[in-house]
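Customer escalation, tier 2.

The customer says the design service returned an amino acid string that "doesn't look like it belongs to this structure." They asked us to rerun it and document both sides in this ticket. The original structure tokens are below, unchanged.
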């Protein structure tokens, strides 16, 4: 759908999702990008103050009213939610909102999907079997036809830096055991393809981080670089990807180093997220690569500690909406 809205799922209604969605709409209502929320109407109405919130039945109807009111495809909660107090009773609705948003994107009814933050613990308590949003989206889209390297691969993006991850929500003690040549190669291929198709970079350059201090120092403080990462980099080069590494992570993110690559392929969660959040804590975007749909989200969590207090910042969500719009436009071109 080249000229339609994006879908935006509400996330955990006890978090800051309702507040930052209302604020994002206030910023974007005049010039877009347009979006329609998939979630609980009452949660948004309660967070809106004087802002107009309107139930709609289709994304196209949402587009028509977007400049006047925040459009919501209302899939109501089964029980009330209190801001700042997450509950497993909301889990079924949260999952339904994500499933509906993915379905709208797969069908072409929306141009892409933006997801407000969810909290894992209440979902796990309700039996949610996935490590997080990214893994769930991979499962929901796995059967859809997609011509390209398969994700999901998580990217974090700010102005001046993109990082992607080989492992995502793994305990640090388990990361080394989870790394394989195949996983590094797949993440590199997905990243390179997305840099071309979604970010318009004709000849993408990857820098591949080491796992250990000093990238293992020739095996004296770890052999993962020798046995896994270096062979994976060689394979990526043989497959036509301009990849360098393994590079010590402590020398990969300063300004001069960032000028030499278009994305850094990192081995674990904090290795990728810390430099991104140091550069722009408020404006980072989480992008899921290698899916048949466009998906972005803010790079922060539910912030239950400030939910309902009125001062959550929508910067990251606004950036995620704009990036989803830009990626969708490139894919549609």
């Amino acid at each position: 759908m080249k000229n339609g809205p994006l879908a935006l799922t509400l996330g955990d209604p006890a978090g800051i999702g309702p507040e930052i969605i209302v604020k994002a709409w206030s910023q974007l209502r005049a010039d877009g990008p347009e979006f329609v929320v998939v979630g609980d109407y009452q949660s948004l109405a309660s967070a809106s103050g004087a802002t107009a919130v309107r139930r709609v039945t289709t994304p196209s109807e949402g587009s028509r009213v977007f400049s006047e009111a925040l459009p919501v495809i209302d899939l109501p909660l089964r029980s009330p939610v209190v801001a700042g107090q997450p509950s497993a009773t909301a889990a079924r609705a949260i999952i339904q909102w994500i499933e509906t948003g993915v379905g709208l994107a797969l069908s072409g009814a929306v141009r892409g999907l933006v997801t407000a933050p969810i909290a894992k613990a209440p979902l796990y308590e309700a039996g949610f079997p996935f490590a997080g949003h990214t893994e769930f989206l991979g499962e929901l889209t796995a059967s859809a036809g997609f011509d390209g390297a398969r994700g999901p691969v998580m990217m974090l993006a700010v102005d001046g830096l993109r990082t992607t991850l080989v492992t995502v929500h793994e305990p640090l003690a388990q990361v080394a055991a989870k790394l394989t040549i195949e996983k590094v190669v797949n993440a590199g291929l997905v990243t390179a393809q997305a840099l071309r198709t979604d970010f318009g970079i004709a000849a993408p350059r990857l820098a591949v981080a080491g796992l250990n201090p000093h990238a293992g120092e020739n095996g004296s403080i770890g052999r993962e670089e020798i046995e896994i990462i270096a062979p994976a980099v060689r394979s990526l080069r043989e497959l036509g990807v301009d990849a360098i590494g393994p590079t010590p992570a402590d020398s990969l993110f300063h300004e001069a180093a960032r000028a030499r690559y278009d994305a850094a392929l990192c081995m674990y969660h904090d290795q990728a997220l810390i430099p991104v959040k140091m550069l722009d804590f408020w404006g980072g975007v989480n992008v899921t690569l290698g899916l048949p749909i466009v998906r972005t989200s803010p790079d922060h969590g539910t912030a239950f500690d400030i939910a309902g207090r009125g001062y959550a910042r929508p910067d990251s969500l606004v950036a995620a909406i704009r990036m989803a719009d830009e990626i969708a436009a490139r894919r549609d071109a």
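Tier 2 assessment: The sequence is consistent with the input. Residues 315-332 form the longest helix (18 residues). Residues 84 and 273 are 25 Å apart (CA to CA). Sent an explanation to the customer and offered a walkthrough call.
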